[in-house]
Design a protein that fits this description.
With 218 residues, the chain is mostly helical. It has a domain of 140 residues: Tetracycline Repressor, domain 2. Helices cover 66% and strands 0% of the residues. The chain is built from ten helices and no strands. The radius of gyration is 23 Å and the shape is elongated.
């Protein structure tokens, strides 16, 4: 067979436009799911919002469930990108933890619909892995985990089970996001981060209290 007769592999036309269309669908779906809830949001509504046919959406996603899960995954990837791209090298590991934590909290303050999506996912699809659990496998907390491990290895932090510590820190972050980050427009995120880490890394008791009450730190 000559070179002229060898069939050429086809490739999607205008790949960039296809990628952008998919992202537009997910962006619109994220806001609609967050605002109206999973049950009340229809694929038709997403299509109408974008002025496209429902069939266009089904070219990318086989079902409403698949669209919803992809929308949540998109927000989580945006969070991971935000935290990792904003990662700066500090000489002081505490500053490293503080910087990553502030970036984490700021993302949810700027994108409150992401929290709503996660909450809905846990309610509608409990069989899926919760986004704020299994902190040892949570890529969103990767920079923070790396910094805390550095504190332990350097002898600056007690040798506690890292997975348990990250689980506790993950729960602390989630509670802070739900109770403070989403409720106050004037929130001082760096100040909030300092207070959180002060309690987590230093504790609330003084040396006097530890001596009088017999509290020991191994």
């Amino acid at each position: 067979m000559s070179a002229e007769t060898v069939p050429k592999r086809g490739r999607p036309k205008n790949i960039e436009a296809s990628i952008q269309r998919k992202d537009d669908i997910l962006s619109s779906a994220s806001l609609l799911f967050a605002t109206n809830g999973y049950a009340e949001t229809k694929v038709d509504t997403v299509a109408e919002e974008l002025d496209i046919s429902k069939g266009t959406i089904y070219r990318y996603f086989n079902s409403k469930r698949e669209l919803f899960v992809a929308a949540v995954d998109r927000e989580m990837q945006r969070l991971i990108d935000t935290v990792t791209e904003d990662e700066v090298s500090f000489d002081n590991p505490i500053d490293q933890v503080s910087h990553a934590t502030t970036a984490y909290l700021r993302f949810f303050k700027d994108n409150p619909h992401a929290v709503e999506l996660i909450t809905q996912e846990r309610a509608a699809f409990p069989e899926l892995n919760p986004r704020f659990q299994t902190a040892d496998e949570n890529p969103m907390l990767g920079p923070i985990r790396k910094s805390i491990r550095g504190l332990m290895d350097g002898g600056y932090y007690r040798k506690l089970p890292l997975d348990d510590l990250m689980e506790m820190f993950s729960n602390l972050l989630y509670g802070t996001i739900m109770s403070s980050t989403l409720q106050r427009d004037d929130l001082d995120l760096p100040g909030l981060t300092r207070n959180m880490l002060d309690v987590l890394l230093v504790g609330v008791t003084t040396e006097k209290a530890r001596e009088e009450w017999g509290l020991k730190r191994d």
